Amino acid sequence: MKELAQILLVDDEPNNREALSLLLTGAGYQVDAVGTGEEAIRILQRTPYAIVVTDLFLPGVSGIDILKKVKSEAPYTNVILITGNASAETAVEAMKEGAFDYITKPVDFEKLKILVAKAMEKSQLVAENLYLRQQLRGKYRFDNIIGHSPAMQQVFARLEKIVHTDSTILILGESGTGKELVAKAIHFNGNRRNKPFIAINCGAIPSELLESELFGHVRGAFTGAVADKPGKFEMANGGTVFLDEIGTMPERLQMKLLRVLQEQEIERVGGSRRIKLDVRVISATNADLEKDVKEGRFREDLYYRLNVIPIQLPPLRERREDIPLLVRHFLQKTCNEMERPLMSVTPEAMRALENHDWPGNVRELENVIERTVALTDGELIDYPDLPPAIAGKASLDLAADAPSLRLPDEGLDMPAFIADIERSLIRDALDRADGVKARAAALLGINRTTLVEKIKRLELEDRAP
């Protein structure tokens, strides 16, 4: 924000210009002073300012002309006008054009310092807000949605087509596939990116409270409604409302949501005033809404209103080729957050991750990587470091690939033979796990309690600290 913490002073009277410049410099501000509107326009084209303090009546380019130029090209800059004419007409015109405030001559220096301090605070807040929005746009760029698989390329192609439209979108996909991430990417890359993105999980709020959360309420609408409160739709005006788990919405609210989509207006709970809105709606569900419509659990007319443009997100098990990319992404993210050196994954561990079915999809994978990084020593993740449900399946897959055994012609003592195999495998697992029973159990695809019992039964306690 440093480059914005400065003031451009415009006054055609040298004595006034010098006095105001000394005043503001003495208050700790960096001040550039010019004597004409033309000079002010030229310097504003190459230098950003937090505040412009300008005389209203200048020869040639006036203070109002400067104000209009600033507001069209640098909306974060606040303009304070100085005028010798304190008429209401002048003040109203200045405010209509976006002036922060105005002050009359002779200038009250203390009042001017107060105005400048308030204007500086507002400019910095606006600049910080713009910076944060730029960061959000970077965070939710389409290329931050990870995936090179054909299924994800189809998703990207559709996103590119719809991002600059205002069409209602329905995102379909299993839990954990990244539906909210896609909704945010649509918003922050589209025409509404400088307006609010408001998300609400329809399944996480009791049905009796959901209407108030969505549409707001007026004072006295119900017990506990001690003041008027805007809902999520009002808060998102001009921007996007994301309705997650839309399939859980009660039928009574489905009808009200349908009217909102049709009329672009709402009524607060307990109120009668209609409030016009300009909101884009993106909804998401992991349910089969077509089936719910056929079985009467979801309104058909609302379904078609929501499903103008559908986006189907594939489950992770249907795009396994994206797992290495996702693993590297989550490793980098988690290691940065934990301030650890970047870790890597052995080929065996990566195969185990690729072969897992991931019922929780990308969210489950992210959680597994976070947990594994936290619990693994060193900078290399092997498959014994993975959770037992993943490492154990990998061990079983390896066993399935082993050559089959044949019974010798002379026969064998099967219990003793199996016990010898168990001893050998347990010793090998304990050696590879440096004696850590939990890791050895994961290697063998059994839980730790079972391993401890086998160690006792096979008299291997001396091998297992």
Automatic annotation (TrEMBL):
Originating organism: Geothermobacter ehrlichii
InterPro entries: AAA+_ATPase, AAA_lid_NorR, CheY-like_superfamily, Homeodomain-like_sf, HTH_Fis, P-loop_NTPase, Sig_transdc_resp-reg_receiver, Sigma_54_int
Domain Sigma-54 factor interaction intervals: 145-374
Name of this protein: Two component Fis family sigma54 specific transcriptional regulator
GO biological process, one term: regulation of DNA-templated transcription
Positions of the Response regulatory domain: 6-120
Record keywords, A-Z: Activator, ATP-binding, DNA-binding, Nucleotide-binding, Phosphoprotein, Transcription, Transcription regulation
GO molecular function terms listed in the Swiss-Prot or TrEMBL record: ATP binding; sequence-specific DNA binding
Pfam families referenced in this protein's UniProt entry, alphabetically: AAA_lid_14, HTH_8, Response_reg, Sigma54_activat
CDD domains xrefs: AAA
Modified residues (4-aspartylphosphate): D55
PANTHER family, per database record: PROPIONATE CATABOLISM OPERON REGULATORY PROTEIN, TRANSCRIPTIONAL REGULATORY PROTEIN
Alphabetical list of SUPFAM superfamilies matching this protein: CheY-like, Homeodomain-like, P-loop containing nucleoside triphosphate hydrolases
Highest taxon above the source species: Bacteria
Matching PROSITE patterns: RESPONSE_REGULATORY, SIGMA54_INTERACT_1, SIGMA54_INTERACT_2, SIGMA54_INTERACT_3, SIGMA54_INTERACT_4
